[in-house]
UniProtKB/TrEMBL annotation:
Pfam families linked: MFS_1
Upper lineage: Bacteria, Bacillati, Actinomycetota, Actinomycetes, Micrococcales
Organism: Curtobacterium pusillum
Record keyword Transmembrane present: yes
Keyword list, A-Z: Membrane, Transmembrane, Transmembrane helix
Transmembrane feature ranges: 12-36, 42-66, 78-96, 102-125, 169-189, 210-236, 242-261, 290-315, 327-350, 356-376
Cross-referenced SUPFAM superfamilies: MFS general substrate transporter
Protein's name in the database: MFS family permease
Length: 401
């Protein structure tokens, strides 16, 4: 706390963290809310899964693009426009009865319009704190986002089952309006201007650190998605144990992020933190008893937020400020692909080999997530004693002669 206390006392930091978490909170609710609502309409989980898949595809496609737009049009116009479109799409799905293809189309549009809050906030963080505070801030942010994945599904399930699926989507809409307005109204968004990038769209992927962070994030989130599917299959829909185990998983990440957030980042930091995730998931393969899974997954969780913090810090320190938002957008796309792929592959193995097969998918993904940054560690920055802020954009200056 000696690290985080002064950090949270820095003007604006606590408020911006709270505002962006509130703005992103609906998207910790929406997948489950859509799943329950569309299933209620069509009485088919297959139909609901199709709507969710197209929503995720839209989000994956749009992430880098809308993030890049913030450098061309400004953060506030892009955030307001995307929030309005996302809000309308949520309202249509909640209140309009349509054929399945229409739900698919609206879901895809809503995915395209997910506001790029995460790239925006991680782009302005370096302008809010000193260089020594930036790495702990990335870690605090990665840890705090676990609150979205712990509370979001719990609130959604309660509202959808006790009141109604329409009301669950409406509640997500309320969070989007309140959180989006709070974040967009933050003075920091007016003080920070992302320069227009002079490089073509996608060129930032030529940065090796961005590729390593994107692929490692894909593997990490893919492993987490496989675990979620497996744990759900162990306990079934009627038991609260699945939710408890997954909450323990997220709490482990929160604790790990806070415990390791002040540690300096070296080229070896990412793979060593991924080792923590792998060890926990390898233990989970050994049994599906409630208490054993809690023990194994709290260990695995302890590496998640610390690993994400390293990825964000490594990208921040190796890209130009004008490219930072797009780089974070690509990282988000990688994580979405990992979530979809991890769930899909785990689902096939769960059908054939039970929950242990799905947990094995998570362990293998985490093992590859150890090997990748280990083999490519020469591409990752050494930030011990260095500033993790993005590389400044410079322009030629005409000097009178």
């Amino acid at each position: 706390m000696s690290t985080y206390g002064p950090l949270l006392k820095t003007p604006g930091v606590g408020r911006v963290i709270a505002a962006q978490l509130t703005a992103r909170f609906p998207f910790g609710m929406l997948s489950l809310a859509y799943l329950l609502h569309v299933e209620h309409v069509f009485h088919s989980y297959g139909a609901a899964g199709l709507v969710l898949a197209t929503t995720s595809v839209g989000q994956a496609l749009a992430g880098p693009l809308t993030s890049r737009w913030m450098g061309s049009w400004g953060m506030r116009p892009v955030l307001v426009l995307t929030s309005l479109v996302a809000l309308v799409s949520m309202g249509v799905i909640a209140f309009v009865t349509m054929p399945l293809w229409a739900y698919v189309v609206v879901g895809f549009i809503g995915g395209l319009a997910v506001p790029p809050v995460q790239p925006a906030v991680r782009t302005i963080y370096p302008k809010m704190v000193t260089s020594s505070q930036l790495t702990p801030l990335f870690s605090l942010d990665a840890s705090a986002q676990e609150l979205i994945w712990v509370a979001g599904p719990v609130i959604t399930t309660f509202v959808a089952t006790q009141i109604g699926t329409v009301q669950a989507i409406v509640l997500a809409m309320v969070f989007l309006v309140v959180g989006g307005a709070w974040f967009v109204g933050s003075p920091e968004l007016g003080r920070v201007r992302i320069p227009r990038s002079k490089r073509a769209f996608g060129v930032v992927l030529k940065r090796p650190s961005v590729v390593v962070a994107t692929l490692t994030g894909l593997l990490l989130i893919g492993a987490c998605a496989a675990v979620e599917a497996s744990v759900t299959s162990v306990f079934g829909e009627g038991s609260p144990n699945a939710g408890i185990v997954l909450a323990v998983f997220a709490i482990g990440s929160l604790i790990g992020g806070l415990a390791l957030g002040h540690r300096p980042i070296s080229p070896n930091t990412l793979w060593t933190r991924m080792v923590i995730v792998f060890v926990g998931l390898a233990l989970a393969v050994g049994g599906t008893n409630f208490w054993w899974l809690c023990f194994a997954l709290v260990i695995a969780g302890a590496g998640i937020a610390p690993a994400l913090a390293v990825m964000f810090g490594s990208v921040s320190a190796t890209v130009k400020f004008s490219d930072a938002a797009e780089a974070y957008g690509w990282m988000g796309t990688g994580q979405l692909i990992g979530a979809a792929g991890g769930s899909a592959v785990a689902g096939f193995l769960i059908d054939g080999h039970g929950a242990t097969g799905g947990l094995m998918v998570g362990a293998v993904a985490a093992l590859i997530g150890v090997a990748l940054p280990l083999v490519t560690k020469r591409w990752l920055p050494d930030l011990r004693g260095r500033d993790a802020s993005p590389i400044p954009d410079t322009e030629p200056v005409n000097i009178p002669t």
